[in-house]
Amino acid sequence: MTRIVVNGVTCDVPAGFTVAAALLSVGHVALRRSIRRHEPRGPFCGMGGCYECVARVDGQADVRTCVTEVHEGMLVEVDPP
Amino acid sequence: MTRRLKSDLVVIGAGPAGLEAAAVASAAGVSVTVLDNFAAPGGQYHMQPGGSDSRFCKASQVRQGVAAIRRVIDHGGAILSGAEVWGVFPGFSVHAQDGEGAIRLDAQTLLIATGAHDRTLAFPGWTLPGVMTPGAAQRLAKTSGIPPGKRTLLAGSGPFLLPVANAVLKVGGRLAEILEARHLDAGPLTLLLKHPEKWPEAARLLWPLIVHRPRFRFGEVVIEALGDERVEAARVAPLDAGGKPLPEQARLVENIDSLLVGYGFRPQIEMTSILGCEHRFDALSGEWCCVVGDETGATSVPGVFAAGEIVSVGGAVPARLSGKIAGLGIVEHLGGDATAEERRALVRQLGRARRFADALHRAFAPPQGLPGNLPDETLICRCEDVTVGELRREMVNGVDDVYGAKLWTRAGMGVCQGRICGWGIARFIAAETGTSVSDLGFNQPRIPLRPVPLRVVQASLENGYSGQADGVVS
After folding, report:
1. In degrees rounded to 5, what are phi and psi of residue B154?
2. CB < 8 Å from B in window 36-65 of A
3. Cβ contacts (< 8 Å) between B415 and chain A: which residues?
4. Looking at residues A38-59, what average pLDDT do you find?
5. How far apart are CA B9 and CA B76, in angstroms?
6. Which of B39, B50, B133 sits opposite A46 (nearest CB)?
7. What DSSP letter does each residue of B119-145 carry, written as one string?
8. Looking at the predicted complex, does its ipTM rise above 0.90?
9. What Cα–Cα distance (Å) separates residue B415 from each residue in B83, B317, B332?
10. Which residues contact B248 (CB under 8 A, 6 or more apart)?
11. Does the beta carbon of B140 lie under 8 angstroms from any beta carbon of chain A?
12. Does residue B117 sit at the A interface (CB-CB below 8 Å)?
């Protein structure tokens, strides 16, 4: 298992998971708000092409969670919290 | 610091086509570097599972992928995974980024084998979290071993729905229903009878469905996703004779937390477009494809070759064959031994594989009447939050093609560069104006092809954007 922190909450997720899979497995499917209408969005294409699943990861904005693997101690911030 | 590499051939995309071409070329002594933007090579078809304990490890597609990857490496080819290409320039120089930063490759020849992705259409509610493409669910299942939700509605058209259904079931997901937009007729069965080489695959795809017996419905499409913060239900409707949804006959599919909708595939022609290669509208798949020589894989730009889904959407078998042909074409282009005879045999096999793929396109063409009469408040472009109403307003003012839609509404101008919305926008405009999708063109992609930090661009371009590398630094 790999320990990550999502919006301040510690979660243990299987090693090798993508961040999107890890978030889905702990119940986060809405990961951000859209730019004009501020509507909830989550993973859509699942292969790095649509940028719908971006979140702040280890302080870096707009990281695609569907093509990024979890690592020990990873800090993930999703919106809405 | 930019890593600068140099090889005779740079292959972009490590799916079935790219891997075959790389293996053939490296076996003939060509120095080859393969770039792929995923964590592991294989593409969508040969996708490598997340762990050695994955339920997918024994699948034939995975094992074939392992063998194809091994052939490239054994012949001295290099595969750079997690390397995303954001720019390609004549000469040729390829600019990519990975977790470590900028990578720049200079090459004499390029093979573009970037594959295809799910083809999607706008419908009310399609932006709700929990609504995904079938390909997304397949990747989730294969790489992380989880289903997209507890209870999934899978819809759209085409044989790809079957492996996705299987992948969802295999990792413990449940299927509310599977909706195939086309009416069931004898077509697919007759086709299958004529192609015995497809029987094992068909049996493998159908067997889990015989065991699990999910509810199959034909001639219905999803017209709306419902939910508050995520998808909770969907409205599905039958189609009229013209393939238009009949909302007044809609029914509700409730208690779902996942909705997957896809209508086949779109070739990823960004790189061949950027390089100025000639493209054609393929009426059967309804897609713009890169034009290549049948026996060479050569595009209209000297030194640029293309293979796989971007030359003709047809799945892994034609992709592998076109990859082999392009690999041999590249060997010849670089002055290697003539391989014409070997290629002619492959061209014959490719012809047969394409005939099967074309018949599937005919059998599962997305219904003509889609996306149907969308309400004004429906979002048509996800990145820029552009509604159907905004697009309709600009169409009254004279917008009549996809480029006009992009200029006047920003639809297709966001970070996905129209990959996700482009097909739906073209079909919508064609339907509203009574024209054909083939007349509307496609949006010329722009560099950077993918969002990239300015520090990476700066590092990559510090010695100009093109020209041969002065040495190999890694």
Report:
1. -110, 125
2. 36-37, 39-52, 62
3. 51
4. 96
5. 12
6. B133
7. -----TTTTSTTEE-HHHHHHHHHHH-
8. yes
9. 18, 32, 38
10. none
11. yes
12. yes
| Bridge partners, residue B154, by sequence | B178, B260
Give yes or no for a contact between B307 and B326, defined as CB atoms under 8 angstroms apart.
yes
pLDDT at B466: 60
Among the listed residues B389, B377, B425, B372, the one whose alpha carbon sits nearest the alpha carbon of residue B250: B372
Residues in chain B within 8 Å Cβ distance of A31: 129
pLDDT the model gives residue B473: 37
- Is the pLDDT confidence value at A32 over 90? yes
* Type of residue found at B331: V
Residues of A in contact with B38 (CB under 8 A): 47-48, 67
Extended strands (E) in chain A = 2-6, 9-13, 32-33, 40-41, 54-57, 60-64, 74-77
Q: If you write DSSP's letter for every residue of B38-90 in order, what string do you get? A: SSSSSTTTTPPPSSTT-TTTT-HHHHHHHHHHHHHHHTT-EEETT-EEEEEET
* Minimal C-alpha gap between B459 and chain A (Å): 19
Query: Peptide bond before A44: cis, by omega within 30 degrees of 0?
Result: no
A66 inside 8 A of chain B by CB? yes
Q: How far apart are CA B207 and CA B196, in angstroms?
A: 17
Q: Determine how β-strand B174-180 pairs with β-strand B151-157.
A: parallel
Query: What is the C-alpha to C-alpha distance for residues B101 and B455, in angstroms, rounded to an integer?
Result: 9
Range A47-80 burial, b when 16+ CB lie within 10 A, else e:
bbbbbbbbbbbeeeeebbbbbbbbeeebebbbee
Q: Which amino acid is at B182?
A: R
User: What does the block give as tokens for B70?
Assistant: 């091994």
**CA torsion angle B242 B247 B251 B253 (round to 10):** 90
Cα(B108)–Cα(A54) distance, rounded to whole angstroms? Answer: 36
10-residue mean pLDDT profile of chain B (474 residues): values are 91 97 96 94 86 79 91 96 94 92 95 97 97 97 94 96 95 96 85 88 87 92 96 96 93 98 96 96 93 96 97 95 97 87 93 92 89 94 97 94 93 92 93 89 88 90 62 38
Closest chain A residue by Cα to residue B421: A50
| Contact criterion met (CB below 8 Å) for B108 and B474 | no
- Put simply, whether A34 touches B (Cβ < 8 Å) is yes
Helix (H, G, I), strand (E, B) or coil at B466: coil
**Phi, psi of B78, deg, nearest 5:** -110, 140
CB of B127 within 8 Å of any CB in chain A?
yes
Q: Binning pLDDT at 50, 70 and 90, where does residue A1 land? A: very high
pTM of the model: 0.94
Interface of B with A in 397-436 (CB under 8 A): 414-416, 419-420
B393/A contact by beta carbon, under 8 A: no
Q: What is the largest CA-CA distance in chain B?
A: 67
How far apart are the CA of A31 and the nearest CA of chain B, in angstroms?
A: 8
Residues 6+ apart with CB under 8 A from B391: B380, B399, B405, B409, B411, B425, B428, B429
Q: How far apart are CA B172 and CA B343, in angstroms?
A: 44
